[in-house]
Design brief:
Layout: H1 3-23, H2 30-35, H3 46-56, H4 60-73, H5 75-82, H6 87-102, H7 107-115, H8 117-143, H9 152-199, H10 205-210, H11 220-229, H12 238-241, H13 249-279, H14 288-296, H15 298-334, H16 345-358, H17 361-365, H18 371-379, H19 383-388, H20 397-415, H21 431-466
Helix pairs in contact: 1-9, 1-15, 3-9, 3-13, 4-5, 4-13, 4-15, 5-11, 5-13, 6-13, 7-8, 8-9, 8-15, 9-13, 9-15, 9-16, 11-21, 13-14, 14-15, 15-16, 18-20, 20-21
Length: 467
């Protein structure tokens, strides 16, 4: 970076951090810090909740991945990644059913009541891994606009961004997270529009929107993976699911549906950045937005960095608030060491600080941000039957464990490269991922219903013997 570029980028980062801290509200009680209520106990408004869900799920790594896939496969790649946002309405509807049919106040409450305490603890461990990954995978994207991995600017920007986000998260918890999400959503939409204003005139619109082929080896396999993961992926992300319990059921459902549809559109639109790179022979080099920004000049690169900072900030503050709730509220209740009374704000603050430090360690080691999505989504495929078919059972711990641990095992085998090649569907880059998710969904579903089937058969045999 030259002096002008450095002044612009570092200056915005400093202004962003100060403005977010000044504007974010301070939580005066635990109900506000952990549940997002205002000082009088009123829940989050519908449109604030919608904006929060919309922007907090548009991670910095997500828009980067969408653009990279657009560069690799055209609009098919963009559609594939954008399809993950359709899981938001799916999650909202399932949570709506859970709340209205079971009266559960959280997913942990629901799992404990249907599948036992150990099932809820296993689920809690899965979401903690997910939250841990969200820290480094978002700060690393921001650092990439200030330098390359290994350079001091890269790490300094990522850590400074972490400090700013942590500061206003400590100030207000979930309440400040939702409040700043609204601001970040407007900033994100404005600058994405500015980016499109530069990209669309530089291309033939029809070519931009039609580039790509719906073939398994041209990105369509990833689209099918996303559609399969719609029913499991959202449930291991408390950044999303925590917001399913902060307002009335119908208000929540409307917010989830609208936010999911808006997210799908926004992510697909941003994937056109990658399609632009593909059409114009721009080498993405693992970061299509940055590559396109550099090719279009300083203004475009700055716009890209603003998009990344706002999307990363909205996810990171939500991650900190979810970590605080998970470790300070949910886990102690599962361990039967806490009652319904919420812990002090100080406990949640300590959790945030610890994970702000530990959560960035993988960034220094170097990792693949796309794998943070696809592999984690595969490992939790066993959650799909649990949340889709819970109505078939009132109490069945084995149904949860057979489904959940089978899915986790398949995900680990996939990551280790131990799945037989015969499982692959097609010959594209995601052929094995598609095969494991397709066959895995069927296997996990069979595992979920197996205890119920055995119980029914056992009951019939007892009746037959009595007759």
């Amino acid at each position: 970076m030259n002096f002008t570029e450095a002044s612009l980028f570092w200056g915005f980062l400093l202004v962003y951090g100060v403005v977010m801290y000044v504007l974010s509200p301070k939580s005066k009680n635990a109900n506000s810090f952990y549940k997002g209520a205002d000082d009088h106990g009123n829940p989050v408004g519908q449109w604030s909740l919608t904006a929060s869900i919309f922007i907090s799920w548009i991670f910095a790594k997500s828009v980067t991945n969408a653009a990279n896939l657009g560069a690799a496969y055209g609009v098919v790649g963009g559609l594939a990644y954008a399809s993950y946002w359709l899981s938001i309405p799916v999650a909202g509807y399932v949570i709506y059913l859970i709340r209205t049919q079971t009266g559960a106040r959280s997913l942990q409450d629901f799992l404990t009541s249907r599948f036992g305490r150990f099932a809820a603890l296993a689920f809690a461990a899965a979401i903690l891994i997910r939250l841990y990954n969200e820290v480094w995978s978002n700060t690393a994207v921001v650092g990439g606009y200030f330098g390359l991995p290994g350079e001091w600017e890269y790490y300094a920007a990522a850590m400074l961004f972490t400090v700013f986000t942590l500061a206003y998260s400590l100030k207000g918890g979930l309440r400040s997270s939702i409040f700043t999400d609204v601001i970040q959503a407007f900033v994100f939409v404005f600058f994405v529009g500015a980016v499109l204003f530069l990209i669309i005139p530089a291309n033939d619109t029809s070519a931009l929107l039609t580039n790509g082929e719906f073939r398994l080896n041209a990105g369509f396999d990833l689209l099918l993976v996303a559609l399969l993961q719609l029913f499991s992926y959202p449930f291991h992300d408390p950044v999303l699911t925590d917001r399913g319990f902060v307002n009335k059921e119908k208000t929540m459902l409307k917010s989830f549906v609208v936010a999911g549809l808006l997210g799908f559109v926004a992510v697909f639109i941003f994937s056109l950045v990658g399609v632009h790179a593909r059409l114009n022979g721009i080498e993405a080099m693992g970061n299509a937005p940055a590559a396109v920004g550099q090719s279009l000049g300083l203004a475009a690169l700055f716009f890209m960095s603003v998009v990344m900072m706002t999307s990363a900030g909205s996810t990171l503050d939500s991650t900190f608030s979810s970590l605080a709730k998970s470790l300070a509220v949910d886990l102690p209740r599962l361990a039967r060491r806490a009652k319904d009374k919420l812990p002090s704000v100080r406990v949640g603050a300590v959790v945030m600080i610890v994970f702000a430090l530990l959560g960035n360690l993988p960034m220094f080691a170097g990792t693949d941000i796309l794998k943070a999505t696809t592999i984690s989504g595969t490992m939790v495929m066993g959650l799909a039957p649990v949340f889709l078919f819970y109505g078939f059972t009132q109490w069945s711990p084995w149904s949860f464990h057979l489904s959940f641990w089978t899915g986790l095992g398949l995900g680990i085998l996939l990551a280790a490269g131990l799945i037989p090649s015969s499982w692959a569907i097609g010959d594209g880059a995601y052929a094995m991922l598609l095969g494991v998710n397709a066959y895995g969904f069927l296997i996990c579903t069979a595992c979920f219903f197996l205890p119920l089937l055995l119980r029914r058969l056992a009951g019939k045999s007892v009746v037959a013997e009595g007759a």
